[in-house]
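#lab-general

N.A. 3:47 PM
ok so I finally got the sequence cleaned up, no stray characters, all 139 residues accounted for. can someone with queue access submit it? mine expired

B.Y. 3:52 PM
send it over

N.A. 3:53 PM
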Amino acid sequence: EPLLRLICSDIDCPDEEVQSSIAFIMVYVLIGPWEATLSPALLQNLGKDLISVLNSAKSQGLILNALAVLKKLVESDDMVHYLIKMDVGKDSVMSVLKKLLVSKKEEFQVASVTVLSSIVNKREGEYCMILLQSDLLGK
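B.Y. 4:20 PM
back already:
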C-alpha cells in the first residue's frame, strides 16, 4: 500500500500526461478484490482527487483514463456512497458527470452514462432520488 499511496498522491500533479499515466495504472491496480487490499482512507483520497482531476482536465486521454478509474471505483458500494456524499469545494461526482454528459465527445457521454447506471443500480436504487434531486438533470 505505501507504493499505491505514493502513486495516488501524484494524481493531482499539474502535468496532465503524468495524471493520465497514473490513472491508466490505477485502472489495472483496481482489479480483483481491491476493496479488501486498499485502505478506506486511500480510496477516499483517490476519489476526492479523481473528482478534482475530472473537473479540471483538458486532455481527452486524461479524461478517459480518469473515467475508467471512476468506473472501477463505482463497482464498490462503499465508494459509491462516499462519492455521492462527497463535495470537493463546489465539485461533486454529479457535477463532473453532468459536465461530461453535455460535452460534445461521445466517448465522455458514454462513459458518464455507464458510471451513472452503476451508481443508480447500487443499493436497490437508493441513489435514484439523489440523482433526480441533483443538478444533473438541468435544474
